[in-house]
TrEMBL record, chain A:
InterPro entries: BCAA_transport (IPR051010), Leu-bd (IPR028081), Peripla_BP_I (IPR028082), TAT_signal (IPR006311). Pfam families: Peripla_BP_6 (PF13458). This is ABC transporter substrate-binding protein. Residues 402-429 are annotated as: Disordered. The keyword Signal applies. Belongs to the leucine-binding protein family. The keyword Thylakoid does not apply. Residues 41-386 form the Leucine-binding protein domain.
TrEMBL record, chain B:
Its main location: membrane. It is a multi-pass membrane protein. It comes from the Bacteria. This is Branched-chain amino acid ABC transporter permease. It comes from Hoeflea alexandrii. CDD domains: TM_PBP1_LivH_like (cd06582). It holds the Pfam family BPD_transp_2. The lineage of its organism: Bacteria, Pseudomonadati, Pseudomonadota, Alphaproteobacteria, Hyphomicrobiales.
Length: 429, 306
């Protein structure tokens, strides 16, 4: 008969030992590796909005990501592995963004996250991603803080930000219309950050801000703000209003015929926000990172591939949001291929400082992933409504194209403090 | 002080539009004691149906379609204003038929069913009309601006406010001056007695729900040129509508109108002087009024208060 006995002390010791081991090797610890098998698909978590203020842009963002994935899979995958995607709706809500990111990483086993339009959502996702060391491609949120004070080692920002667009627009506006500015600002992180960057530039170029109207998210009636603007009579109104709020604003400005009575700077203009609106809704000047009628190599073919993949989509040509979603995903997959591994730190190092030719980006200038802020420094275009469109979709008239170094967001260089590699959990996806 | 006047005018017009939005919602809550969470979706559906009628998309490139599109925009707009609410009313009636098994059960059943219906209608809109932004064309005469006191005002917004006044007046006349209105009000007050007197309560409920849905859709048609048109636009409607009927007193027609004007004024004036508080101001108004008078401005006194 065996002399071994289960004693209470022995049980407690065993439990403590198992608990300690679990804590050490657990999934939340550095150096975890949950997907060593090389035949296992690489899973991308698509964190784009399907509801809320940015539902429409989120859908466009997602289409861009899916086209990049489809093309990679058609070419044999990455490192010989198929790419799989999982999408969960981030609902244009920061709290949902956190929950979705947590679930994507811990339950869906996504090794990479891609997608955002709202800066609040992007910030929430990136905090979770950094905790797990999961690389996150912020495709379309353009608050300067995303590559400034809220930057992270795992996060890469693919859109131009409010400071880039303001820089391209403000000096021209002061020269043309005068220096008295009024700011119309969406009352959330992107609006505030963009307005702050705009103020700095207005000061820098000798203008002044007479007033700022804060517009809560979800505002549908802008009459009070528009009356106040008329009473104040500024030279220029610099608006940082996004999504559905901006659509309502545009319609109401057009109804009042105020579009050409005051000089408007509309910061960035996302394609899904204006597609389908009447031409008189496109007033003022605004920024964009890409346009489907740019006369550059590869653009026509890119538009053709979009139309072949999405023949049923009401948006007949791709816009900047689709473009950013596509470029971010494509460059992520290429970085994995170059790294020869899915190890997150190795992939991060491949992305940092990576130079993309103007040809591959279908822009006028080469672009680079800034190794200090992780924001893609790229061409910024100033545009306005097209008075002589060549076809129904030809809504923009491109006014200028600025080289990345001319519109660089200098503030983010000072405020971004990336976590060290050692402080970033490592794993193979 | 003079600077305040345009903002008061704006607040009142906004209030009238809020009243129009809340009208169908308050009717269904008051008469049927159902919180219709599909109100916003019916609002959107009405606007989409009107847009399609105005554009003549129903008829494709047929001879009739070509003839239709050659009609003056004002004629097509007037027909759209009628067709959108009528078609939405039939959807509302189908919804009422689905709601019948929930009568007499806890209110949660009705809430869940109308919430589900809202999701279904919104998805149908996405499938039929796509996810992108659309615009509802209005006649040129309504679509400009005019000067008043050196400021530009939107002609359409004033037209919409006038439209809201007419709609409020007609609904009041219907409820107060017609036998149908009397039956509806009696049904809300004592449904058992109405049934005992030989009225068909099922038909009455069907009529009320259809009428409420038509009013929601009418509000959608009127508001779409101001707010824009997208599948999820109904979300923007539910909260103000709910707030207004609580402030006004559940089931009170004039309470809802008064509450809508107060909400419009508070949003309009804070929008000018403390714009960051403009959305919050309606919730503060709710807290202030319900805090002092729990049944709302003109709500009926509860038996518990006696």
């Amino acid at each position: 008969m065996s002399s071994s006995k289960f004693t209470r002390r022995g049980m407690l010791r065993s439990a403590a030992a198992v608990g300690g081991l679990a804590a050490f090797y657990g999934p939340w610890k550095h150096n975890r590796a949950y997907a060593q098998a090389t035949d296992k698909p690489i899973r991308l978590g698509l964190t784009s909005d399907a509801s809320g203020q940015y539902a429409n842009s989120g859908a466009s963002d997602r289409r861009g990501m899916l086209m990049a994935v489809a093309e990679a899979n058609a070419a044999g995958g990455v490192l010989g592995r198929k790419i799989e995607t999982v999408h969960l709706d981030t609902e244009t809500t920061a709290a949902t963004g956190s929950r979705v990111a947590e679930r994507m990483i811990t339950r869906e086993e996504c090794g990479f996250l891609v997608g955002a339009v709202s800066s609040g959502v992007a910030n929430a996702i990136s905090q979770v991603a950094q905790r797990y060391g999961v690389i996150y491609m912020n495709t379309n949120s353009s608050s300067p803080t995303e590559s400034g004070e809220n930057c992270h080692r795992v996060k890469f920002v693919w859109d131009g930000n409010g400071a880039n667009f303001s820089k391209a627009a403000i000096k021209n506006s002061i020269d043309a219309y005068g220096g008295d500015f009024m700011l119309l600002t969406n009352d959330y992180v992107w609006g505030h950050d963009t307005a702050r960057a705009t103020r700095v530039l207005i000061d820098q170029y000798g203008g002044s801000v007479s007033d700022e109207i804060l517009v809560p998210q979800g505002t549908r009636d802008f009459t009070a703000a528009l009356l106040k603007i008329q009473q104040a009579k500024p030279n220029v109104v610099a608006a940082a209003v996004g999504g559905d709020d901006q659509i309502a604003l545009r319609q109401q400005v057009a109804q009042l015929g105020m579009g050409d009575k005051i000089a408007w700077i509309n910061n960035q203009q996302d394609w899904p926000d204006i597609y389908g609106l009447p031409a008189d809704n496109l007033f003022g000047v605004f920024g964009t990172t890409w346009y489907y009628k740019l006369d550059l190599p590869g653009v026509k073919e890119f538009v053709g591939r979009y139309q072949a993949m999405y023949p049923e989509t009401s948006m007949r040509v791709p816009g900047n949001v689709f473009y950013n979603g596509y470029m971010a995903t494509k460059n992520l997959l290429e970085a994995i291929e170059r790294a020869g591994t899915t190890n997150n730190i190795a992939v991060i190092k491949q992305l940092e400082g990576h130079v993309m030719s103007a040809e591959s980006r279908m822009q006028h200038h080469d672009a680079v992933v800034d190794p200090n802020t992780h924001q893609v420094q790229q061409s910024i275009y100033l545009a306005t409504g097209n008075p002589a469109p060549t076809e129904d979709d030809d809504l923009f008239k491109i006014l200028t194209s600025s080289a990345p170094e001319d519109v660089r967001d200098q503030d983010s260089l000072g405020s971004c403090k990336l976590e060290s590699y050692d402080d970033t959990p490592t794993f193979d996806a | 002080m003079i600077e305040l006047i345009p903002h008061i005018v704006n607040g009142l017009t906004l209030g009238l539009l809020f009243a129009l939005i809340a009208l169908g919602f308050t009717l269904i809550v008051g008469v049927m004691e159902v919180i219709n969470l599909a109100h916003g979706a019916l609002f959107a559906l009405g606007a989409y149906l009107a847009m399609t009628t105005i554009g003549g998309d129903w008829f494709g490139s047929s001879e009739f379609g070509v003839w239709w599109r050659e009609l003056p925009l004002s004629t097509r707009y007037a027909l759209g204003v009628v067709a959108g609410p009528l078609l939405a009313a039939s959807v509302g009636m189908v919804l009422e038929l689905c709601l019948r098994p929930t009568y007499g059960k806890p209110p949660l059943y009705g809430l869940l069913l109308t919430f589900g219906a809202a999701l279904v209608i919104e998805e149908l809109i996405r499938l039929i009309w796509g996810t992108g932004e659309q615009s509802l064309a209005v006649p040129r005469a309504l679509n400009g601006a005019f000067f008043m006191g050196g400021l530009i005002f939107s002609t359409y917004k004033f037209f919409a406010a006038g439209f809201a006044i007419v709609a409020i007046g007609l609904v009041w006349l219907f409820l107060e001056r017609t036998p149908y209105g009397a039956t509806i009000k009696a049904g809300a007050h004592d449904s058992e007695m109405v049934r005992a007197l030989g009225y068909d309560l099922s038909k009455l409920r069907l009529l009320v729900f259809g009428f409420g849905a038509a009013l929601a859709a009418l509000a959608g048609v009127v508001m779409a040129p101001i707010w824009g048109l997208r599948p999820h636009i109904g979300i923007d409607v539910i909260i103000p509508a709910f707030l207004i009927i609580v402030i006004g007193g559940v089931g009170s027609f004039w309470g809802a109108v008064l509450a809508a004007l107060l909400v419009g004024l508070s949003v309009g004036i804070t929008g000018a002087y403390a714009p960051a508080w403009s959305m919050l101001s309606m919730y503060l108004l709710l807290i202030a009024i319900v805090g002092f008078r729990s049944r709302g401005l003109l709500g009926r006194k509860s038996a518990l208060e006696n």
